[in-house]
Write a structure and sequence with these properties.
The longest helix is centred in the first third of the chain and has 13 residues. With about 200 residues, the protein is α+β, with helices and mostly antiparallel strands. The two termini are about 35 Å apart. A hairpin with a 3-residue loop joins strand 7 and strand 8. The strands form two sheets. Strands 4-3-5-6-11-7-8-9-10 form a nine-stranded mixed sheet. A two-stranded antiparallel ribbon has the order 1-2. The chain is elongated, with a radius of gyration of 19 Å. The protein is built from four helices and eleven strands, in the order H-H-H-E-E-E-H-E-E-E-E-E-E-E-E. Helix content is about 20%, strand content about 30%.
Length: about 200
Amino acid sequence: MGGINQEKILNYLKNNDRKTLTEIRNYLDKNIQKPVVLYHLKKLIDLGKIIKNDDKTYQYYSGQNIQLVKIPCYGEAKAGTDAKIKDNEDPDYFIAVPPSCLKGYNPKDLFIMQVSGDSMEPTLYDSSYVVFKKEFGNIPKDNDVVLYKVNNEELKIKRFKNMGNYAILWSDNFRNHNPIEINEEYDYYLGRMISIINA
C-alpha cells in the first residue's frame, strides 16, 4: 500500500479545505490505486473523522465546522410506526446528526429508530439510536442489521441471515433471544442500518 495511511490522509484534510479523491491520491502517491485510497477514506468516514460532501469532496470533521442534518425519528422499534415511515408522514421528532452519520446517502432516504431491549447487544444497546436507509421492497444482504415488521404488527431490529431456502432474523444476543423465521407474506423489510447514534 506504499506510503498511504489514514493518519496521513487525516492530517492532509485537517490542513486543507475540501479535497477530491484525485487530489488526495496525488498528495499521497499518484501510483496508488484509487480503490486503496477509497478504502482508507471509508474507514475514516466510519470513524467519524471525515465526511463526504454532496459534491464528492472529502472534508475533515471537527465537530464544529459542519452543519448538522435533521433526520426524522419514528420512536422505538415497536408496533405501529412503519406506515408513517413509508408515507413520509410526520415523525415523532427529529434528531440533528453530523453528516458523517449519513454515509453519503441523501437525508430524504434515511430515518431513525430507537433500540428497545437487549437483543442486539453488544452491537446495539438499549436506548441507542440507529440511522436506517429506507429499503422498502428490496431484499436484505446476508448479515445486514435490518428493521423488519414481524407478523404484520411489531417492528424488530435484527440481523438478517440467509439460510438458503429460508431466512431468519437473528439476535446478536442469541443466548437470550430465539431467531425468527421470516414469513414473506406477513413480514416486511423496512430499512438497513447505516450508522449508530449512542444515547
